[in-house]
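pls ignore typos typing on phone
nickel (II) ion + seq
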Amino acid sequence: MSDLERFGVSMDGALLNAFDELIRSRGYRNRSEAIRDIIRDYLVSTEWEDSEHEVVGTLTVVYDHARHDLSEKLTALQHEHHERIVCSTHVHIDEHNCLEIVVLRGPAGEVRRLADELMATRGVKHAKLVSTTTGREIV
Ligand code: NI
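k done
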C-alpha cells in the first residue's frame, strides 16, 4: 500500500450530515472508507470513458427462452464476439425464464457496444451491465 495521506475537506454542514447518514445506513464505519470507495468508483467510471482502455464488465440478462429464436440469437452474438467474452453462466429460473451472466473484457468501446447489442436484442426482459475494472490501476 502506498503512503497514507490525510487531507481536510470543507463542505456545507447539511451536505455532510446527509453524507454521514447515507454511509451509516450502508454500513460504513467511517468517512474515510466511504470516500475511498467513492474515489475508486469515480476512477473506474473514467476508465470506461476512454474507449481504448481495457475494462471488465458483467452483463446480466433475463429472457424468455421460448421467445422465437432469442436463445440462439444471444448465443450467436456471443460466438461472434468470443474474443471479448470471458465466460457465461446460464440459469433456468423457471419453466420460461432464463438468466444469463456474461463476463466481458476488452477495450471499453467494444465491450460497451457488445453489451448494448445484447441488451437491445428483442425479447430481452431485463438487462444490466456492471461496468468494472481489471483493477490494475486501482489502489
Ligand atoms: Ni434457461
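The first helix runs from residue 13 to 25. Residues 45 and 131 are 8 Å apart (CA to CA). more later
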